[in-house]
Write a structure and sequence with these properties.
By secondary structure, the protein is of the alpha/beta class. It is 45% helix and 19% strand. The protein is built from 19 helices and 18 strands. The strands form three sheets. The protein has an eleven-stranded mixed β-sheet with strand order 7-6-5-1-12-13-14-15-16-18-17, with helices on both faces. Strands 3-11-8-2-4 form a five-stranded mixed β-sheet. α1 packs across α16 and α16 runs antiparallel to α19. 49% of the residues are buried. Bound molecules: 8-bromo-adenosine-5'-monophosphate (2 copies) and alpha-D-glucopyranose. The site of alpha-D-glucopyranose (GLC) has 15 residues, from β2, α6, β11 and α19.
Length: 453
């Protein structure tokens, strides 16, 4: 069958079965994304006002966190220069005020949980229970209508209500997202690809604050879930990770005792100690989702420097190196499913077999193309419209290498008792924005797999 035919049949079958999945628990990070599409002249003027000496140093090396406006502007330049995403905590009040004054073009739902809740609940109509660290009016208003719930505890009794009905006036957790297109120019820098820098003016998500409703009523909350996705651990540091980690492991144990498969969305985790600790608990998850930078960062702390380098050497990323790294990770942790995504293709390594794994990847690629094209996916019909986006040409060489090395056919191969599934993706030439595509991919594939099985 052609890839277009496989795409179309995968979409139809996932769509038909989404109603059968049941509740999905999403924890822990939700915030408000204030998106600013950068303007080169404006940015240069701002740098000159602060003074190049205060700024340009950070374009060469990111600070650990943002403590003044010079560091903010320098970090934005770092992202542009490298074409890389970065996210830093903004501690200083005056810098938070500066970002607010600078303004935004668009307010959007942010955080892995928020983005996935709107997609799964608001678009796919699958019931979700979301952890929202702070329910401000602005935050609540960004949730789509649909079966999206947050736990509310009154007199020790738990209720599930839509965030708009939660009616609390808690704080705003705002992440300022500075987006730039490929080729964006400022001073002597030119962005090699589209991306963004994120300044988090938020005291809750970066510390993985877990609400009392979740701490006190987790058994009951877990009782409503058939699947779970955990995210938001990436901003923890060796200084603050122990307490939220302990609580997360308790949540995992409860979910595992109920046979609820849990997916970990592994975003870029700067702190090596936190990264190691995540690898240590990975075996308690059913599944993990990551990109090439994240996989390389894991190989590095596992002592696989050679593999880590290979993962970052080529474009498109060498699929044989990816498979080798996924096998190492699966053998080390016993996690049952590893979903890798990169620009142009996805791979999944599972300790179980079936076409449904590949078909869920194809469904996810359609959702990602819709997200890249539109910024916000409003309905499942917008997803099917992404069928028009052509399958990435460069994925052909990737497919040929997988066929040569592992005898892959129709995107499926057997390796050392595992199944390797492949999907060539649809890449949108001029994406509206880049934030949240990874979350769309991982949640659609994970949930799609259970819709099909
Ligand atoms: P993409 O650029 O493909 O989105 O990959 C994720 C990136 O996260 C990595 O390349 C890495 O640059 C980046 N990253 C993040 Br997010 N936060 C970072 C930080 N504080 N320091 C360095 N890199 C960071
Ligand atoms: P991360 O931020 O976790 O790297 O996720 C981004 C993913 O989005 C990439 O792995 C890539 O598969 C996908 N993606 C990007 Br970036 N740009 C895209 C585009 N223009 N069209 C479709 N998918 C895209
Ligand atoms: C991180 C950021 C958040 C953004 C999300 C997108 O969680 O903190 O602002 O919306 O990534 O994936």
């Amino acid at each position: 069958m052609s890839w277009d035919a496989l795409y179309s049949s995968a979409f139809d079958r996932v769509r038909k079965n989404l109603g059968k999945i049941g509740g999905i628990l999403l924890a822990y990070n939700t915030n408000i994304d204030a998106i600013k599409y950068l303007d080169g002249n404006d940015l240069e003027r701002r740098v000159e006002t602060v003074g190049e000496d205060e700024v340009l140093h950070y374009a060469g090396e990111l600070p650990r966190m943002v403590e003044n406006v010079g560091q903010l502007l320098g970090s934005i330049l770092w992202s542009i220069k490298h074409g890389k995403a970065a996210e830093l905590f903004v501690e200083s009040c005056s810098t938070r005020f500066y970002m607010r004054e600078w303004g935004w073009d668009e307010l959007r739902m942010g955080g892995q949980v928020g983005i996935m809740a709107n997609l799964l609940g608001g678009v796919y109509n699958v019931p979700v229970i979301a952890h929202v660290p702070q329910v401000s009016r602005l935050q609540a208003g960004l949730f789509k209508d649909g079966p999206i719930y947050v736990p509310k505890a009154e007199n020790g009794k738990l209720e599930l209500v839509h965030p708009k009905e939660f009616q609390a006036d808690e704080e705003n957790c705002i992440h300022y997202i500075y987006e730039f297109p490929r080729g964006f120019r400022v001073f002597d820098f030119e962005a090699p690809r589209e991306n963004r820098f994120i300044g988090a003016a938020d005291d809750y998500n970066p510390n993985v604050y877990i609400r009392p409703e979740f701490r006190e009523h987790f058994e009951e909350i877990a009782g409503r879930a058939r699947l779970a996705i955990i995210s938001g651990l990436q901003t923890l540091t060796r200084k603050n990770y122990r307490e939220p980690f302990e609580e997360m492991v308790r949540h995992l144990e409860i979910l595992n005792a109920r046979d609820v498969p849990v997916h970990l969305e592994f975003a870029f985790t700067q702190d090596e100690i936190v990264r190691r600790s995540l690898i240590d608990v990975l075996g308690q998850f059913h599944s993990v989702g990551l990109n090439e930078v994240e996989l390389a960062s894991i190989m590095e702390v596992m002592g696989e420097k050679g593999l880590a380098e290979k993962l970052l050497a080529d474009d498109p990323v060498d699929p044989i190196a990816v498979t080798g790294a996924m096998l190492r990770l699966a053998e080390r942790t016993s996690v049952r499913r590893i979903h890798f995504h990169t620009y142009g293709y996805y791979l999944a390594l599972t300790d179980y077999k079936g076409d449904f794994v590949r078909d869920a990847l194809l469904f996810a690629a359609l959702a990602a193309a819709a997200k890249a094209k539109l910024g916000d996916v409003r309905s499942i019909d917008a997803v099917v419209k992404a069928m028009d986006v052509p399958v990435n040409e460069r994925a052909k060489t990737v497919e040929e290498r997988l066929a040569g090395e592992y005898g892959m056919k129709n995107g499926i191969a057997d390796i050392n008792g595992y199944q390797l599934s492949f999907a060539p993706t649809k890449v949108v030439t001029r994406p509206k924005s880049t934030v949240g595509i990874g979350d769309t991919i991982s949640s659609s594939a994970f949930v799609g797999e259970f819709a099909l099985h």
